[in-house]
Structures are given as structure tokens and as C-alpha cells.
Design brief:
Elements (H helix, E strand, L loop, with lengths): L1 E5 L2 E4 L4 E8 L7 E7 L6 E6 L6 E3 L7 E6 L4 E6 L8 E8 L16 E6 L1
Length: about 120
């Protein structure tokens, strides 16, 4: 079982990055995929989620309107398109499986390894 997060790096304020989360070794279509953000010295919080099946999505208020999430079931990959980046978006980002969007972090079964995003001027 593996969730592989990638695409992090450095970006300027107002810039964009795309994170990818690729899955293998389990029944991908049985899970929603969420992205969690862990800023330095803070806890891990969900920023976005996409359900399997209907592909419905949810976003934290802090990223709503700036970021999008999409899912390519043929490639077992979820993408988080991060635009209009702000310094406060600086964090390690983790992808994870949930039974459905709306379940909290305690219901995560599989975690990706995390990818660092740093936003600066």
C-alpha cells in the first residue's frame, strides 16, 4: 500500500504549484482523498478533499477560490492545484484516504509521506 505525494517546492507569493498524490496497492475507488496542511509548529488540518464516485469536493475557507482539486481514477492520482499562493500556505502537505469527505483526520487509513511547500517573496 502506498500513497506518493509529490510536486512541492518553492514558489513566490501569487505563484502556483500542483501537488500530486498517486496510489497503489489498495482499492483506490473505495476512498475519498484529502490533502492536509501542517505549517511549522502547528497541527495538521484538512485543506481539501475529493470524493470517489461523484467527485464532489470540499475546501477549507483559507484556500477556497484559490485552489482546485481533481481526480484521475485511471491513473489513481489526485491533483491539488494551488494558485495565488500566500506565505501562510507554507507547510508540509500530506495526502490521505478517508471513507468520505467530511470525516475527520481520525478516520485516515493511509497517509502519504508529505511534500514541502514554501512560499516567499
Amino acid at each position: 500500500v502506498q500513497l506518493q505525494a509529490s510536486g512541492g517546492g518553492s514558489a513566490q507569493i501569487g505563484g502556483s504549484l500542483r501537488l500530486s498524490c498517486s496510489a497503489s496497492g489498495f482499492s483506490w475507488n473505495h476512498y475519498a482523498i484529502a490533502w492536509f496542511q501542517e505549517p511549522p509548529g502547528k497541527g495538521r488540518e484538512e485543506v481539501s478533499c475529493i470524493n470517489s464516485g461523484d467527485g464532489s469536493t470540499r475546501f477549507a475557507d483559507s484556500v477556497k477560490g484559490r485552489w482546485t482539486i481533481s481526480r484521475d481514477n485511471a491513473k489513481s492520482t489526485v491533483y491539488l492545484q494551488m494558485s495565488s499562493l500566500k506565505p501562510e500556505d507554507t507547510a508540509v502537505y500530506y495526502c490521505a484516504t478517508l471513507p468520505k469527505c467530511g470525516y475527520n483526520l481520525g478516520y485516515v487509513r493511509y497517509w502519504g509521506q508529505g511534500t514541502q511547500v514554501t512560499v516567499s517573496s
